[in-house]
Design a protein that fits this description.
single chain, mainly beta, Nuclear Transport Factor 2, Chain: A, Beta-galactosidase, Chain A, domain 5, 3 domains, 10-stranded antiparallel beta sheet, 9-stranded antiparallel beta sheet, 7 helices, 30 strands, 9% helix, 40% strand, globular, disordered C terminus
């Protein structure tokens, strides 16, 4: 068995139950089974176990499961050809050899037609817990049959010297500074959120978090004050293509969701390390090869955190000061995929906005140098050690249902108003709004120079007779795929050619590189689905790719400081005015307290409503 997960109910059926009191949808499981040459999807009723549907998936090969990875790594170090190649490089203690099992890619290799295989590469540790990436063993690749768990063939090429780099970063090995005093976050009155039957409720937000074996963290049915915002949001695929042309590295193009499974690679988060404050954890339950439940404790972290000043103003005429502190609700899950960690963090804010952030941690991939100089596609990080250039492309699937399922997407850009009678001194500018009516028109790229954003408008009107909506605002990380057009990675990861795609909702269209991209030269996905269907006044899905291009620095070695990228969803006309006017002032006395108390009566007219309420129908 590859995976087992609850099969999500039909969207219309779920909404009828959630909003109109219809019968609760039946509970079903989706089980993915694998044989040597194929994949089969089976739908089973829960709890009686009746098989409702089963279907083979043509051309599909399963991903590398945790059991595959462990068995493949083990068989490599037992293979005599590998042992001989290691001895030829001066490696005698096989217990210190680290094996990474990497996806094969699709590059017309002769094994692609006959085997589901991985490419196993080796590193040498100085001791059992050392950082092996400091000492890559170059140009030694074992081709591993992932079904038979055996080495098919060994590629033994240029025997470069194993670097003498120091990659240790462990506490107790690296001397710790002593100039930082303890820092603590406390909530003496407890948290402001509850969980009821899987639904999280905080402030005016409600949502249901879950873990999918492939996508990892998923947020379902996100609402503000009962109003629908996001039906389902997840990182549906990510690819890490490398830019080093050396044959030891040029095939490295990892689809971390489709070829490993972000959910299958989740961490168990720890209080005080991964999360700080008053934390609630949720466990995840995934199926293993034998169909037994595998528990990932503390897979999801839920907590509140201070978000700085929400809003503030000092009235220069009266001296009256009003300040409100912001806080946000954090939903966090972290996956370790090989040498990298990825934290997927969703922030729900008091003002109705949602921030989606990916935090990148871990250790960069490395290559040994032959002449003390970095190869063409790499930068030096240590003695005899370089790190290849690469990208991280995270494709988020956002099934936005802003005040319902009938939405229209507009592109908004800043434009200058021509100098003339209406703009005599030439300083005027305005938004240019373009309705994206078809899929082909909605393949768009970020453009910071034009202040480009995208709004999702509903058919509901606010108090100003404007449509209610949300806008997608790009943040840091708007790179697009750098691989050459027509290359293998370009054909397989076509979703990363553009920052934004918009498609009409289809329950089967979930993975932008196809559900089973492993060793698939043409896995389908977003470029295949997105033809020219109408998307105006439809149930739309936005596919937004956060792209990071990483030219590695020495400061990224031996373990990189966290870097982050992301975007935000912001209400635009969803409310009639600032929805946070009713947030109470800080309890703690500050230097403005006396002034605020004295000035309240004069500066708060009785006619001023205090609540920022929802838009009117």
């Amino acid at each position: 068995m590859v995976s087992a997960v609850r099969r999500e109910p039909d969207k219309a059926e779920y909404l009828a139950w959630r909003d109109n009191g219809a019968p609760r949808p039946a509970r079903q499981a989706l089980i993915v089974l694998a044989t040597r040459d194929s994949v089969e999807e089976v739908v089973v009723d829960v709890p009686d176990g009746t098989v409702c549907h089963r279907q083979p998936v043509k051309g599909a090969r399963p991903p590398i499961t945790p059991e595959d990875y462990e068995a493949a790594a083990d068989c490599v170090v037992r293979d005599e050809r590998v042992r001989e190649a290691l001895r030829a490089r001066g490696v005698e203690d096989l217990d210190l050899v680290q094996i990474d099992v990497l996806p094969s890619g699709v590059f017309d290799h002769h094994l692609e037609a006959t085997h589901r295989f991985g490419r196993a590469v080796a590193y040498l540790r100085r001791d059992r817990f050392d950082n092996g990436y400091a000492r890559p063993i170059e140009h030694l690749i074992a081709y591993v049959d992932l079904d038979a768990h055996s080495v098919i063939e060994v590629e033994d090429g240029e025997r470069r010297p194993i670097p003498a780099a120091d990659g240790d970063y462990r506490a107790g090995v690296v001397a710790a500074r002593d100039d930082l005093r303890p820092f603590a976050l406390t909530q003496p009155d407890g948290v402001s959120f509850t969980i009821d039957d899987g639904e999280v409720r905080w402030h005016r937000w409600t949502f249901v978090p879950a873990i999918d074996p492939q996508e990892g963290l998923v947020l379902h049915d996100v609402r503000y004050d009962g109003r629908r915002v996001l039906y389902r949001g997840s990182c549906a695929e990510m690819i890490v293509p490398y830019g080093e042309p050396d044959p030891m590295h040029n095939w490295r193009t990892y689809f971390d969701a489709g070829e490993y499974g972000l959910g299958a690679c989740l961490n168990s988060l720890e209080l005080g390390c991964d999360c700080l404050g008053d934390i609630t954890y949720l466990d995840a339950y995934l199926g293993d090869h034998s169909g037994q439940a595998r528990t990932i404790a503390n897979a999801i972290c839920l907590h509140e955190e201070d978000a700085g000043i929400l809003w503030k103003h000092t009235d220069h005429a009266t001296g009256h000061v009003e300040t409100r502190r912001g806080r946000r609700f954090v939903v966090n899950a972290m996956a370790t995929v090989g040498n990298y960690e990825y934290a997927f963090r969703w922030y729900l804010n008091l003002d109705g906005s949602v921030e989606i952030e990916v935090q990148l941690h871990g250790i960069v991939s490395t290559t040994a140098t032959s002449n003390g100089r970095a190869p063409l596609g790499s930068n030096m990080v240590d003695r005899g050690l370089a790190a290849p250039h690469h990208q991280h492309m995270f494709c988020f699937r956002l099934d936005l249902d802003v005040d319902g399922t009938s939405n229209t997407v507009h592109e908004v850009e800043a434009e200058r108003v021509p100098t003339g009678p209406h703009n005599p001194i030439g300083n005027a500018f305005r938004p240019r709004v373009t309705s994206l009516r078809t899929e082909s028109a909605a393949r768009r790229d970020a453009d910071e120079g034009a202040s480009r954003i995208w709004t999702v408008k509903s058919n509901r009107r606010n108090a100003h007779d404007q449509p209610t909506g949300y806008r997608l605002v790009p943040g840091h990380g708007t790179a697009t795929l750098l691989a050459q057009p027509g290359s293998s990675v370009d054909r397989r990861a076509g979703f990363a050619r553009h920052t934004l795609w918009v498609t009409p909702y289809c329950a089967e269209e979930r993975f932008p590189a196809g559900a089973y991209p492993y060793q698939h030269a043409d896995p389908g996905g977003l470029p295949t689905w997105s033809q020219d269907r109408p998307i105006e006044n439809e149930d739309v899905v936005l596919w937004y790719t956060v792209g990071v291009t990483h030219f590695v620095r020495p400061e990224d070695w031996p373990i990189m400081p966290m870097t982050k990228a992301g975007f935000s969803l912001q209400p635009v006309g969803f409310f009639d005015r600032n929805p946070t006017l009713d947030i109470p002032p800080p309890r703690r006395t500050c230097c403005h307290s006396d002034k605020a108390a004295r000035g309240t009566e004069q500066s708060s007219p009785a006619s001023l409503p205090l609540g920022g309420r929802a838009g009117t129908p």
